[in-house]
Amino acid sequence: MQNEILIAGFGGQGVLFAGQLLAYAAMDEGKQVTWIPSYGPEMRGGTANCTVIISDEEIGSPLVSHPQAVIAMNRPSLDKYEPLVKPDGVLVVNTSMVDRKTTRTDIKVVEVDANAMAEKLGDKRMSNMVLLGALLGQLGVLPMKAIEHALQVHLPERHHSLLPKNYEALHEGAMMQALSI
Amino acid sequence: MAREFMKGNEAIAEAAVRAGVAAYFGYPITPQTELLEYMSHRMPELGRAFVQAESELATINMVYGAACTGQRVMSSSSSPGVSLMMEGVSYIAGTEIPVVLVDVMRGGPGLGNIAPAQGDYNQIVHGGGHGDYHNIVLAPSNVQEAVDFTVLAFDLAEKYRSVTVVLLDGMLGQMMEPCELPPMKPMKTEFEDWAVNGAKGRERRFLTSINLDPAAQEVTNFRLLNRWQQVEANEIRYKKYFMEDARFAVVAYGSSGRISLSAVRAARAEGIPVGLIRPITVSPFPTAAIREASKDLQGMLVVEMSSGQMLEDVLAATRHNVPTEFFGRIGGMVPYPDEVLEEIRGLVKGPLTTEGHPRERWLKRMAERI
After folding, report:
1. Number of cross-chain residue pairs from A and B with Cβ atoms under 8 Å apart
2. What is the pLDDT of residue B316?
3. Chain B within 8 Å of A37 (Cβ-Cβ)?
């Protein structure tokens, strides 16, 4: 069993960290896992993405042409990756940053007003956790406890006062329902 | 032991530290820079030497000098930087001293780009520097192997007084995977009888690559070759997947090896009896193992992120007797498993032939696609 998750957005939205968190949690659960960023002559504010693959056996390619799940944090990411989600896969869209509807009908789509939800919880920067929560709610790849534990271990000490809010962000995201197809 | 989650570049750096590297010299270049960056704080923390040189040319000559002391010494770079080091690599080989070099390959030729590629194969495996010498070349395909082979590289370099290269690409350098790190080894305190580390109280030693007497140079070269025969006899490594009942095989190393593993699994799921042979030492090349395996095969597919550099070594191994096709993405493009799966299907569908050259047929197929 292999799960492939691609997270894409602007640099600065926490794309790479959300992916790493997922990967740390997978490792701590005893899984095989790869995390690979897009790396290029890119700058702050440019697009960023990472692919996380979680498996029970030796992982081959760390990149896939059709990921099982995508988190699109902005419009360019939605345009690029919506067509690529594997049929029956999951697409989590940050509607705060996207001004169009999704078009796929053969996948589960979760629309999340993540920036607003994060802001309501106290910090817009937690939108990546809301979206990650939404993904986990649809794709039973890892238990929420594992993500919480990874967050506790890997969030820098100076941010630890934010842990409860981040847990809340994850849980609120996980409550989001997929659009009925 | 606890697993660490590390980038390939950083894992190699920490593995080298734990293998007892005493001095690191380098110059930044993407996609290798994290290795140098990691060393820049880790080495001083341990009281060991870290130097960011003014160029790769200076780097390799600092490595050359430091390695003459018998301490464990290394450098790392990426393709264009490695090209600049080639003169020094030849001098090191001619001087018969152990050095570990890491090449995190990127798209070329020329300045190219910073995306992953495997276009340095010929340079690293078949020469690069001038003169008659061989590098031992280890090609990891995941972060754990990057760790293990870095440690092994130091051991092999010392055992055979040879340049040992850990050859990977930007994909493996940049990606993170869990790995187990080896226990910490202290720096060497006992040295081989060739090391020039202070002659007080003993006979003076001399290390050089200059040998103005051709007859003496010939003797040196035969010594190098005899040592290389030992390497070939003892150190060939490769990994086979699904080969027990295979009628077809993919041959691929490093990142294209692991990408091919995904494709081979998918092909198996379709009922295609295909396996994978992944060379780990690309120098010495697992020639005999590939020839032996090929006897049971109807066809082979070589996959590389180059235009078929290792392909020639595979064809030499099978003596062109086994129908072989080639698939490569080049210039920094990374193949997806789907593409390799399509090529496996194409191989099986045939026609299977030993006529012509696989590269010619690949070029034709690519001309239709790109």
Report:
1. 67
2. 98
3. yes
